[in-house]
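Form P-L/3: holo structure prediction, ligand adenosine monophosphate.
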Amino acid sequence: MPYIYDDQNVFAKILRGEIPNDTVLETEHTLAFRDIGPQTPDHVLVIPKGSYVTQDHFSQEASDAEIVDFNRAVGRICATLGVSPGDGGAGYRTISNAGTDAVQEVPHFHLHILAGRPLGRMIGKG
Ligand code: AMP
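OUTPUT (holo model):
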């Protein structure tokens, strides 16, 4: 079944400027802002400006320019946060929740960047 994008989701409202956000980086195709309920000292959400529901949706339907822009933005954010292990940082974790099993709350593709403390093992027991 094809994806149907709900343009009333909270990140769509952020992109339209209807609700505020704490922006970390904005580029032509990508917006990154701090999570309103941070799970770690640094918790940044990276979203494409286009209407994509999940990472697989984005990966399959976004343009090359959007995909490159998004991935370059992730690198820039890690550098800005000072968390890149390649630059002496203590590291980070990225998570992208998709659909019901992953308990995706906001149906606009977003990558969580979590950092700022030891993060433990990869995944809980659910
Ligand atoms: P997920 O469960 O992967 O869909 O995560 C959605 C995330 O969006 C959660 O971590 C929320 O805290 C975050 N969130 C919800 N509303 C806002 C908002 N207005 N600004 C920033 N982050 C938000």
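COMMENT: The chain has three helices and five strands.
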